[in-house]
Amino acid sequence: MVTAVADWGTIRKQRQSKPRRGGGGTTLFGRRTMLFLLPGALYLAVLSVYPLIDLFRTAFSDVTAANLLGERPFNGLDNMWRVIDDPSFGHVVLQTLAIVAIVLVVGLAGGFAAALMLRPRTRLSSVTLGVMVFVWTLPAVVAGNLWKFLLESGGPVNSVLLWLHVIGQPIPWLANGTLAIVVLGLVNAWMVVPFCALVLRAALLDVSKELLEAAALDGAAGWKVTRYIVLPLLRPVLSILGVLVVINAFRSFDLIFVMTSGGPGTSTTTLPYLGYQQAFKFFEFGQGSFTATLSLVIVLFLGAVYLRMNRREES
Known about the structure:
The protein is mainly α. The chain has helices at 2-17, 31-59, 78-85, 89-117, 123-137, 140-150, 156-163, 177-205, 209-217, 223-250, 254-259, 271-280, 285-314.
């Protein structure tokens, strides 16, 4: 009896140690699974991996319209020095950081304020959330054309301000360099606020009611509860959300293309848009590829920061 039990235990261990097989006699990650993954792998290789490799190769080659389809001679770091030595490059970097800062501050602050107001589960909050989701899913090209129409010299915004006697003459919202930077940042933030509000509202709903009631019994109310209890609890979510907002603001291209085309002059040109201009306006594909590669490296760095923070939050 003891021997039979021992033999059965040995057989059971052997069965558990064997990999489970599918219906066709292959393991879970066997040939059939690889065949199912093959189309997706080919799609990524053709439309993602190869263009990135070609972009990196072009960034260190002398490529113009004359030899775009021919040989691409390697020129080392010449493209980098040409881009950096451009007098407008420093201004472009500062303008990129200015737009990112506006989007980050206004996006997080506006999203948090909206989340606090929409925290009660009422019919009005549900309708407002629906409208915010619509704004969030609105294509950037559509939003850019909408705001360009609203901010024209004879557009609705200037007309209303003139009617209210707030201004004496139309304001050139998109024709003044500094003002155009602020407008682009605010429009970008307007599109980001709904996403921030949805995420922060979900985080607010997870805050323990018992903790808030205990704080109320201790005499804390209003801003003190928000500052000393709610915000510390939301700090991990705010950190991850901040990285996502920065990535979204840094790679924004559609709004600039539609609303200002980088102008007036180069006053609203950012790094991604500068790469587009170098490659497809001045046909300096090597310099444009280097600028695009620099932008890609920055976005990948921010993405790595996001993944690390997300992993730390999960652990």
